[in-house]
Design goal:
- The protein is α+β, with helices and mostly antiparallel strands.
- It has two domains: 162 residues, Cyclophilin (Beta Barrel), CATH 2.40.100; 33 residues, no CATH class.
- The chain is built from six helices and twelve strands.
- The strands form three sheets. An eight-stranded antiparallel beta barrel has the order 1-2-9-5-6-4-3-12. Strands 7-8 form a two-stranded antiparallel ribbon. Strands 10-11 form a two-stranded antiparallel ribbon.
């Protein structure tokens, strides 16, 4: 099954253990942020990954890094006013094997301040919120409609509006479990190399491999992803 970012229709039409509430030490804060370098054929991108805000997602991503899963993959979906996506297909557009999906942590990450803003990294998935594996995307604009919908208190939930959509007197369980409200889990942000991201976003695209559109006509390769010490 192609694990492409499931939000084209949405875009066109418009989911830990208890910790003591003590301040993090500088050492703990440092360990909560991991840094990676994404070396591409268009240049290097460096990013911070927030293990304190999306722990399972970051651990999942770093395991793929350790396994060298991303080496030799391509950015197979590029939309100039939206995002650039990669990490799932090799140079022949053959989908790479992945581990089981990672648990969706979008609402936890959102509560910790991570939103789908320009330069952030988020997990791609199918229309099943619990389907993210290795593919990720970099937002090249502010994409608030990709954020999970925060669910207010109450059951049923009284009237509220989010991203231009109104909800009124809906059972809490229905809202919490609605696939349309899970959004996409943000787990990192570009710290240098946004000029490279800009270069990728503006590359001419068309049909390629199994995809009818949005594929760079000149392939953009992820040569490697490495964890920075």
């Amino acid at each position: 099954m192609k694990r492409t970012l499931f939000l084209r229709t949405i875009a066109l039409a418009m989911t830990l253990p208890l910790l003591l509430a003590l301040p993090l030490t500088s050492q703990a804060q440092s360990s909560a942020v991991q840094k990676v370098r994404i070396s591409t054929s268009a240049g290097d991108i460096e990013a911070e990954l927030y293990a304190d805000k999306a722990p399972k997602t970051v651990a999942n991503f770093l395991q793929y890094v350790k396994d060298k899963h991303y080496d030799g993959t391509v950015f197979h979906r590029v939309i100039a006013n939206f995002m650039v996506q990669g990490g799932g297909y090799d140079a022949q557009y053959k989908e790479k094997k992945t581990r089981p999906p990672v648990q969706h942590e979008g609402r936890m990450a959102l509560a910790a301040g991570l939103k789908n803003t320009t330069g952030t990294l988020a997990m791609a998935r199918t229309n099943d919120p619990q389907s993210a594996t290795a593919q990720f995307f970099i937002n090249v604009t502010d994409n608030a409609f990709l954020d999970p919908t925060p669910i207010p208190d109450g059951d049923p939930v009284a009237k509220f509006e989010y991203n231009g959509r109104v909800y009124e007197n809906v059972a809490r369980a229905q809202l919490i479990n609605s696939p349309q409200l899970f959004g996409y889990t943000v787990f990192g942000k570009v710290t240098s190399g946004m000029d490279v991201v800009q270069k990728i976003r503006t590359t001419p695209t068309g049909a390629g491999g199994p995809f009818p559109s949005d594929v760079p006509k000149t392939p953009v390769f992820i040569q490697s992803v490495t964890l920075l010490k």
